[in-house]
Amino acid sequence: MAARRRIAGGEVWRVVSGRAARVVAGVHQTWRRSLQVRVVTITLVASSLLVGGFAFLIADKITTILLDNARTDVRLRVNSGASYAAKQVSLYGQPQEAQLQETIDGTVNYLAGGDPQQTSGVVVAITADDYPNDIQTRAAPSVNVQPLISPELRAAVAEGKVASQIRTGRLTGQSTKYLVYGSPVPTRFGQIELYYLVPLTRQDSTAADARATVVATGVALVILLGLLAALVTRLVVNPVRVAARTAQRLSAGLLDQRMVVNGEDDLALLAASFNQMATNLQRQILRLEEMSRLQRRFTSDVSHELRTPLTTVRMAADLIFAERDEFDPAVARSAELLQAELDRFEELLTDLLEISRFDAGFAMLDAEPTDLVPVVHRVVERLAGLAERVGVPIELDLPGTPVIAEVDPRRVERVLRNLVGNAVEHGEARPVLITLGIDETAVAITVRDHGVGLKAGEEKLVFNRFWRADPSRARQTGGTGLGLSISLEDARLHGGWLEAWGAPGQGAQFRLTLPARAGDRLTTSPLRLVPADAALPFGGPRDGGPLAIGPGTGGALAIGPAPTGDGQRAEVGS
What we know:
Elements: H1 2-33, H2 35-89, H3 98-113, E1 123-127, E2 138-140, H4 151-158, E3 163-170, E4 175-186, E5 191-199, H5 201-251, H6 266-305, H7 307-322, H8 329-360, E6 368-371, H9 372-390, E7 394-397, E8 404-407, H10 409-425, E9 432-438, E10 442-449, H11 483-493, E11 497-503, E12 507-515
Parallel strand pairs: 7-9
Antiparallel strand pairs: 1-2, 1-5, 3-4, 4-5, 6-8, 9-10, 10-12, 11-12
Helix pairs in contact: 2-3, 2-5, 5-6, 6-8, 7-8, 8-11, 9-10, 10-11
């Protein structure tokens, strides 16, 4: 039973703590998102502290004034009563005289009856601490006042001083706060003591009413300040919210959205300025879109128009190249150069046409289940001659079983051909390693070279069109400068990532990650972007974490949609 109770108690605690955590999270989210809530809350807190402080000071001042008035009144009574009592007992020379007790009784009754408010509850008492056996304590009305007269007060009065205290006790059946005043009464035989016990019920009631009034006024004032702050904040926040919504619509492509301009104040100036900005942005965006459209059309038209003269030149060049053995060596060499440059020119036209199709949104994905192992082998076989010529060995790290994924084999082969060709060109006669990996949701291919690598910041430019890390460096492959840009678009068309890492003196590594099933969303990659043999400063992670992006690491670049977990990158344009 005890174990069950503990388990039940633990479950209840988890439920309560979970709900409390959700409430706190909701409040925190509201606090962060709502400017109006923050302003109203701060106004309420500040005004509550300020009004509460003033209310405390006012209530304390009222209480002090009431108590001072009561002290002044009672002190006058005590002084008058002490003088009267001294005259009455001045005829007696010994405390044992028979008539002294009667005189004291009459004096007490007279002083009590002299109070103009007979129902006020004032108690008058005469004691004789020095003669307890001869003179009995008398009080009017007849009550036991001894519990309300403290030893300290008795000692002060016995020394001949007029002293007072505030005491709480029961004299008439209910607990009441009393202002107790004591005064010595000199006689011929010594000293007796006169005490006034004045209830402070009326003063407490007045002070309580004053405190309640002050508190009610303060609460009303705080509420009014909160409402006023909410109203003023709403007047300011509403145009800002409208501007935010309008900006969101503008960013979504609704370029005709505008704010309503009311009045001539600062908020109206804000709305007018925002509308003017939106108009200028719309004009510029439309102008840029038209220029982009004309540029894409120009590129496409030029590429197509160059096909016909290129075909004619190609036929003539092929004829000359076929007969080059009959020419003198200089003319034969010229024919070979012409043939090579025509090949490169044809590749450039093909790449330009492919880029124009991507820009126009006409590129289509022809995905089918494909074994990527033969694709990698075909790419290596096609580039084996180039690798042998520049002295760069190509090493493979491939699974022993087929790696099946729903991809467009033509586009994947083109991406790998560009990546491996770049690695061979920049390999500096060192091995290039191609690795293929797969998991439940994705396949990945990395191409690692050990060349000069990428400097900090260059990883952000490597996928730009016609960009070269070293403009003075001669191309070994005669590339067009568009290979990585097209590869990036091919990876995006698959819904995958194409990422780059590099560090000076440590080479570079490119990683292509594709979903195993067409249309799936990537979250992780089977292979890490930063190679295991990379020497990272600061002891950073090697799994392609955010540190691989920074300039201190040689900069890993994120290309494609930003996933979670391994391979998380920020998307950049080509």
